[in-house]
Amino acid sequence: QLEEAQRLEQDSIRTLYNANKRCIQILTFLEILNRFSLVRLLRGVNPDILKALEQLLFSHFVWKQDSGMMKDLIRLIVRKSDDEQTGAVDALFKQLETEVGNFFTAADIKECEGFEKLNLVRKTTDDETARILRQRALNAFMDAIKYSGESHGTIDIGPVCRQFRKLGDYSSAVKLALYAAQAVDPNDLAYEVLQPNQNESVAAREAFTKRTQCYAAALEALEELYNPEPLRESSKQSLKELPRKKLSGDSRVHMRNRILAEMTKSSDRLFHLQLFNWYIQNRKQDQEGLLNLPSPYLEDFLRNNHPHSQLLARYYETHEKWDQSAKVLSQLADSPDEELNLDTRIALLTRAINCAKTGNTAGNMLQVLQNRLDVALVQKSVLVQLRQSLSEGDLTPQEKEEREKAIQELDNQFKSLTELYNKYSVRFQLFEASLAILHCSQFKNQQPIYHLLVQIVVSTIAKAQNVQSALTSKLTSLARKYYPSLFFPVDFIISMVEKITFRYNFEPGWLTEAFVNPQIIIPHEELYRAYKLIHLHLVNRDEYPMPFDIDPKYYLLTPSDETRRYILATLVQILELWTNYASKNEDVDFSPEIYSSDLGMLESDAGRLSTDANVLPNRTRGALLSRISKLRQRWSSE
Fold it and tell me: What's the CA angle centered on 101, arms 96 and 102, to 5 degrees?
């Protein structure tokens, strides 16, 4: 009990001593205020400060540890003083530190000194003097942060950085913010928060929060240089707000580049990560701004946080790391992200191929990418035809639902050729898509190809309003894709199409015209050979059988005077077109003497045609013989 009584007595004496000491310092402070005339100091001050002063009691200063109001009053002395000589202000600060130390620490002195220097900047018109004053202000604030840390205090740097920005000194604002971030966490505890699978301590979380608050002050400078709109003030200041120095567009860009260089020179990895996230969140349309930052941490950040993103791929492209970019784009094209439709995935594969080509990628990576793109393009054709089928024919609700589901599947993820063929093209009778799949898989069996070509022609006719126009469009499209290959067998296609369309009584040579005008898709020689085979078969089918492994009903014209006239007229037209084309193009290899015997054969066969009763004018025996005669004369003269 005696020990407890002694302890309480000592605590009481200590409390009484501190109260007396504070009373003396308060009286000293009031004497300083009186010397500078409190009434004059308070003219034009923020009404909120005046209201707070009116409510203050002497006991408030004695028993409460909050010295904020005293700081505000000291700043008013600095700002309102008519004496702008540094020596007088320094003397004031020395007196405050010596005689009012409980309320006004070394950190407070340096903070006020910094504001005093910024106030002088506002009053000077000399650029060099202003630069020196800003530098001294920056040094003072840094000292304030240092002293504050030593006494376990804090300084709100947000308003300080804001004042630097209003003077156009964005660089000092950034330097101060980054310095403060290091000062509040000298042991780098905040980095614990970034460690995966680790429970960070309370101290680490607090350090992280403090550092990010400092980073926010630096990033506000960047935001302001990108967006000249004034920022909302985060806290009220007793200092009269400094007028904002306006920057021109060029000056703003120059300053932005300068502070970005300042930021990326920092060794504070945590700040770099905050800077990257700021760009991603606030400058979504300015990817180049992020990707061109000369930060040693940017690649790791993108790889760890956006491993399959176009952002990482763009980074590699920007820095000409073509192999890495190709790999990332390829992975992104395969990602399960349902927001990526088929067109986007194809575009990503195309970019990957371009990167691989630019970088002269070693190994078989380029071929693998090209093969994948080929399959993806086939899938695109399946998707397009399936979509078209929704509006063609009468579908039951169930059939429509099945097709819509298939469309969604095709548009969300890449499929293999086997899936495309069995699950989609065969199931929904997409004949042209099936042909594309077989072509991409390098299929070698000709018979299924014949059947698919028949189905394509038949379905085209069934859907067409103008049969000739529809077939011309379809066949030329197929020829451009597949000729020359076994997927466009010219002999069979011509025989099959002429067989199916003969009943429409088209003009002889309509199919030939489609393949040679306005540009040569299939050479005249190839067309002539195909029609000659049909002609010889019509004349003598035993001696000249058709070489197609498929039911003859799909391609054999019935031998008759009418069919022979039609094929003869087509052969003559091909020779006419070929002759005209050769006369206009010297590089065309056409030797009439080679076909002189054929011309005699055609003339002989035309002469054996029956009477011309009920025959179209251009198919009469006389018309054909006349055209053959003109060709012979022309060949002789040329």
Answer: 135
First to last CA, the chain: 138
Number of Cβ within a 10 Å radius of residue 50: 10
Contact between residue 355 and residue 329 where contact means Cβ atoms under 8 Å apart: yes
Radius of gyration of the chain (CA): 45
The Cα angle at residue 69 between residues 63 and 73, in degrees rounded to 5: 130
CA 301 – CA 315 distance, rounded (Å):
11
DSSP structural state of residue 309: S
Specify the long-range contacts of residues 536-540, CB closer than 8 Å, at least 24 apart: 538/563, 538/564, 538/567, 539/564, 539/605
Question: What is the average pLDDT across 339-346?
Answer: 94
Give the pLDDT confidence of 119-132 residue by residue, as tens digits: 889 888 899 999 99
CA distances from 19 to 60, 61, 65, 104 (A): 11, 10, 11, 16
Please give the structure tokens belonging to residue 21. 């000491």
Element (DSSP H or E) covering residue 227:
none
Question: Where does 359-466 have alpha helices with state H?
Answer: 365-389, 397-412, 417-419, 431-440, 446-463
Query: Sign of the C-alpha dihedral, residues 477, 478, 484, 488?
Result: negative
Contacts 24+ apart (CB under 8 A), 497-502: 497/457, 497/471, 498/534, 498/557, 498/566, 498/567, 499/554, 499/555, 499/556, 499/557, 500/457, 500/458, 500/461, 501/461, 501/467, 501/468, 501/471, 502/557, 502/563, 502/566
Structure-block tokens of residue 549:
């492994």
Q: 564, 557 in Cβ contact below 8 A?
A: no
Q: CA–CA separation, 377 vs 365, rounded Å?
A: 18
Residue 191 amino acid letter: Y
Q: Report the pLDDT value the prediction gives residue 153, as an integer from 0 to 100.
A: 58
Q: Could you tell me which residue, 337 or 56, shows the higher pLDDT?
A: 337
The model's pTM = 0.72
Whether the Cβ atoms of residue 495 and residue 534 lie closer than 8 Å to each other? yes
Which residue in this structure is represented by tokens 């990576």? 365
Q: Estimate the share of the chain in helix, then strand, then coil, as percent rounded to the nearest 5.
A: 70, 0, 30
